[in-house]
Amino acid sequence: MLSLLSLSKTYPSGVEALSNFDLEIRPGEIVAVIGGSGCGKSTLLRVISGLEPATLGQVRIHGEEVTAPHPLINLIFQEPRLLPWLTVEQNISFGIRHLDAREQGRRVRGVLQQVQLQGYETRLPKELSGGQAQRVAIARALVTQPEVLLLDEPFSALDAMTRGSLQRHLLHIWRETAATIVIVTHDIEEAAALAHRVVVMRPSPGTMLEEITIDLPLPRNELEADLDPFKKRIRTALHRSLAYADGTDLMLV
Amino acid sequence: MTAADLSSEKQRLSGGKSGYRLRWSAFSGLLIALVLPVSGFAVWQLLVSSGFASGRLVPPPSRILSALWQLQQTGELSHHLVATCLRVLSGFAAGAVAGIILGGVTGYFRPARRLLDPTLQALRAIPSIAWVPLFILWFGIFETSKVTLIAVGVFFPVYLGVSASLVSVDRKIVEVGRIFRLSGFEMVRRILFPAILPALVVSLRTGLGLGWMFVVAAEFMGASEGLGYLLVDGQQLGKPDQIVAAILVFAILGKLSDGLLVLLTAPLTAWQDNYQKERK
Predict the structure, then answer these.
(1) Residue B179 to residue A74, Cβ atoms within 8 A
(2) Which regions in chain A score pLDDT beneath 70?
(3) How far apart are CA A193 and CA A180, in angstroms?
(4) Nearest to B179 among A69, A124, A131 (CB)
(5) B59-279: CATH topology
(6) In this complex, which of B172, B180, B194 lies closest to A85 when CB atoms are compared?
(7) A122 and A89 Cβ atoms separated by less than 8 Å
(8) Which domains does chain A have, with CATH numbers?
(9) Nearest residue of A to residue B173 by CA position?
């Protein structure tokens, strides 16, 4: 169980990015966090991951407070952030160097299969396409076998086909690992297709505006009609969220 | 198969061809690099041989080569060359190691940077020649003062390169290390040090170049051997061919040592994705 208890984050500059944010996430649940630019979505993930300390409130995993990066939590960034001097294999095994070579090899082979990148082990990041690099980043996070996987707009820089393919990969991984997933997105279709629950945030300061539960089985087709009422609710909530801020980067389709 | 896969496959298939192309590229690069100095020498030789220039103060290549040959025949050239190379090597090693350590400390630890960097930057502004009398007083006229002067010359660019590049390592890749809970030492070893390697190589090259410059200043401090001594000797005895010959040897040694450094460090920076490699 991942618990966010009255989380607040104010940066030294005085910007109040998060205020009084509460959320309980069940094991194996996929939660999408959606909202306009600057509503604190990424800050929320950074606080959960332990990269940023909360000003007030707590993040707890199985009752244990998270104050720094935690072995059970891993974060996948918006851009792959692969280490350019390491090969694909070395990048993936980056977080498991404490394990013996045999176990490392077994795990790396396993995740390479999960993200379908067998045969790419010796390539350098500069030799990969954007989608392949993001898959390596996902593999690097998965190889540590985290219970909670945080994804910060991981597919936003990719073309529609690659994005669709990676979304399917993510669901495939979720079925195999039963990890808890929190994904930040600005894409209503993505949120509706992937999540059990969609959390709509409003800005200034970032806080929860509405929670929408999507009780349809996964995987879902983005275009299926059953999703329409949920998309409509998300869209309406987002319009309300936008009333709090000027401008947005939302894909209101 | 994606376009990227196809392109990589194509690259793999053309591996033999690219090996040949690389060798040709290196050879043609050498030829192109020689065009300017060889043309310059040829023109100067022609001007002196045809009587348009006297060649008294700027001797033609034939006289320079003859001076070099004579120095080699008597064994003087090798003797002076070895003395200078040993000084540069010792000074470079000491200066580079000190520069890497202090640059690493000030680049990584903010309190150390605030304490040490202002003083080191002030010392960096002191002209090299200003150290000479002090080093002679402190270390005497023999090897220690010379090697120390060279080390000072090498130290500052290496220190500055390491310190500045550590400070500017991309926050995003440091966060990758933090997410994987690297210790401070592991962060340095696995992220910060590899990230600054390209900048470190440039700093070392700059430091080595300055090492060759400082060795001349060092050998002006009453040396009885070394290429710098040959320069002083040539000036005092009015032998411009010996002076130019020594200068030529400095140029060749500087270029060769830089090339060697580049060659040795090339595998460490092969991962860089830059447009020059793309053009190759």
Answers:
(1) yes
(2) 222, 245-253
(3) 16
(4) A69
(5) MetI-like fold (1.10.3720)
(6) B194
(7) yes
(8) 1-72+147-253 (3.40.50.300), 78-145 (no CATH)
(9) A81
